[in-house]
Amino acid sequence: MLSNLYQRLRGLMVRKTELEEKEKGQGMVEYALILVLIAIVVIVILTVVGHQVNNIFSNISNTLGT
Q1: Which pTM value belongs to this model?
Q2: Which of 21, 26, 33, 52 has its CA 20 to 30 A from that of 66?
Q3: What is residue 15's predicted lDDT score, i.e. its pLDDT?
């Protein structure tokens, strides 16, 4: 009787641990997706504004050089 109860409780603990590990993996995937989204936004912003920033630094460099 007690060994049966022990085995049931042990089985529940193993299942709980497996579920927690799956949830940790899911959380890491969500963080990775957020990082990819941030990287895409930064690339788009730099592509759109990059030439203007380059011109500003060129003007500053030319002004300091003279």
Answers
A1: 0.49
A2: 52
A3: 66
